[in-house]
From TrEMBL:
Principal subcellular localisation of the protein: other
Name listed for the protein in its UniProt record: Putative cytochrome c peroxidase
Compartments reported by the entry: Cell envelope
Region (Disordered) residue spans: 1-43
UniProt xrefs under InterPro entries: Cyt_c-like_dom, Cyt_c-like_dom_sf, Cytochrome_c_Peroxidase/MauG, Di-haem_cyt_c_peroxidsae
Keyword Metal-binding: yes
Single GO molecular function: heme binding
Organism: Bradyrhizobium oligotrophicum S58
Amino acid sequence: MARKPKPMQSEPMPSKTAQPTTVPVTPVAAENPLAPPTTVGAAVTPPAQLSEAELAAKGLELFNDASLSGGNKASCATCHFSTGHTNNKTYVGLDVVADGDPNGRNTPTLWGVGERAVFGWAGQAATLEDSIRGIIVNRMKGAEPSKESLAALVAYVRTLNYPKNWQVKDDGTPSADASAAVKRGYDLYVGDGGCGTCHQLPSFDKKSKDDIGTGGKFKVPTLHAAASTAPYFHDGRTASLRDAVKLMWEFYAKKMESRLPTEAELDDLTAYVGAL
């Protein structure tokens, strides 16, 4: 006999109330972004600004760093010591030459350099930054300094102030306790000596260049601390301050057709200039 086929089992109909619930998932990264790697953060974070004291301290390090020069031959302190004062030598480039060499340039002090208007014996630099860069690149034959290095060097040399002298007040006039010679010398300085015409109070220099018969026009140097900056003039031609004072008074007398000084007047004027 033929078997009856088994009845097919029907699949249960899905219930309308049994719909699966979809739960939205918010990406974790959107709520809690991962911190960028340290290296990335360091690359985009600007460096902390140095204080003036920290910048000057960095400048002092660079001032003594011979790697600023070509072949590591010299640092700024080679000619100016770490104190910024002159080493009292005359140079052509980095070579010491005899005082009075027409091609030589006498090393000036950097004390009070922040108060000056123009820089260099030729008055070629309008800013302190330009002056320092020119010395590094042209005289020291070094690589182009970075802006950061220049800023640090400028900050340091701006801390170098003139030493005070009890005989002269800040405005250049003698103090009440100054010696009689200094007081007489001041009267000559602003009077018959004509010194104040170019070495103007209270900075004791001026912005322009003058020709005083020493081989061309040169920047009028400050007379502050002159007692310790021998030799004198751009080429170091005069060994003593008294001889420098004498040369200048004689030049002024010839130009203005005025009188020459006596020996006593030279002593007094030298005493005043030496006290600046």
